[in-house]
Fold:
Amino acid sequence: MNGEKPRLRWRLREAGLDGVTLLVLPGVLFVLALFIYPFLYGLGLSFHPAKGDWLANYRRFFSDPFLWRTIPTTLLIAAPVTVLNVVLSVPVALRVRRMRRQRLLTTILVIPITLGTVMVAEGLLTYLGPRGWLNRTLILFGIASGPVHLVHNYWGVMLSLLISGFPFTFLLTLSYVTGIDPSLEQAGAMLGARARQRFRHILLPLLAPGLAITLALAFVQAFTVFPSAILVGDPAGATRVISIAAYQAAYEQFDYSLASAIAMLMAGVQVVIIVALLGARSLLFRGPASSGKG
Amino acid sequence: MAPAPHDFRELRLDGVCRAFGHVNALHDVTLSVGRGEFVALVGPSGCGKSTALNCIAGLLQLSAGAIWLDDRRLDDVGPEDRGFGMVFQNYALFPHMTVRRNIGFGLAAQHRPKAEIARRVDEALALVRLAGHAEKLPGQLSGGQQQRVAIARAVVMEPPLVLMDEPLSNLDAKLRLEMRAEIRRIHSMLGCSTIYVTHDQEEALSLADRIVVLIDGRTRQIGTPEELYTAPANADVAEFMGYRNLVASDAEPAGDGVMVTVGGGRLPGTPMRPLGGRVVVAIRPDDLRPVLDGPIVATVEIAEYHGRDFYAVARAEDGTDLYFRSERRIAAGDTLRLGAPPARVLVYPA
Structure:
């Protein structure tokens, strides 16, 4: 009409800002108050050690094997269990996708999420302990001469993380798998490709970006393992994970500054792994996993 | 490209049934497709035509019956081993592969030498006139180009039989006409047999050597396009083939034909099957025309201008709505007389 600029409100709306945008404010405040602020506070605190210069905490961490070894220890638990969970999720999700009673099976598989770590640990201790039914059965049938040690060590934590982590990776993987147009696999079959070839050349490449995300999220969950490392693990030895070191620094030695430094290192390791995963992801095809228009 | 090497005489469907739960999607379908033939499976949506195609492809198991390729029984062979080409409704191109890799996928799965794959893919690309697009991803192509890639991917394997599931339904009207001609051209160049599913009777008429009409999972008529167009076997097929005027009536024998009542007017018709008492009269809108001494008196309700003529709906004296065409300008509210040649007034038992 005339040469006037459109009203400010309209221009804001063009840019995606209107009254509804205000609804993100509580969320932003929440993140600022409960994540950003504590994080920055902790970061600052880690540079103010009880004694020594500003890097003393970090120097101490890397010179004390009892502390720095928690990083390889945690990685040795988190990395295999993450990979194992994702690798198990893929075939299960591919099978479940074709099932008619999908919801029932999904519910059963998801129950471990609702149980919580402590409950799972309880169960593991009861069933897999030295006098649990598994060992009794093994000994009864002469398969093992003495009890097989599956709890209070590395394997206890592995099993616990497998049980509590699997539903999570499974659900994520299922959603990625169902996002792939089934006619692509049919097209592969019509062109003579065997199931293995179809998986390798059609499903896997389309699934890979989603699997990278799943790996990243599952890894973060496993890397921050704490309760099961204590309850079914060997918290003084094989499963002395990094969160135990942070806990002990904070609540047994009351050295919040050192605890903060350990938490920062924990975050650092996670960031490195996630950046590596997402970097690898960016090399993959990430278009829609369907074909055609409309 | 060389003609399809796997020669066969006929593909035979023998009493093929397919049920989903308690619903019979296909009921006792028997059909034979000869070498080089272009057969269209048509019918209203939900009639089982896609089910039939998927059964032939091997993507669906049969509930009963058998499928034979000459004397080889096919219905317990997986889709991988049937060696048929298929063009999907949504094209089903692999989105993460270039056009070249899409087309070469089947050859690569057979571990053919690289040089042979490259040569045959180039030939297929030339066949569908996409030579310059080999290194693009499907997402970078238009709908019509994706369609061509899908066809190239199916025919590069030199299959004896190509299955097409409503391949043109996602294209706009102009492209659809172009691709229709293209499909016919490729079919006759390659000499393979084609089974083509569509709900569009016009598409079937223009493409096919033979048309199979499926209604409610049953074969209702198999014939040449001309047979189906001029002489549908029953009223259901007539309805699908564009006989929009279907009117219930009484019939009285009159000479070679019968006299029927349509919209209050009496007119002679052609009995298509032995009749008795109640009948259904089927007339194409193209055959019902305004004529000075027509037996049906009707008032125009809607008249659509279609360029060469008008397509109109008129209400007859007894309240029946009749669809017809008129070359003369007409407008809503006009009262006129309609008539049809007796040979084009088809009468079926009700």
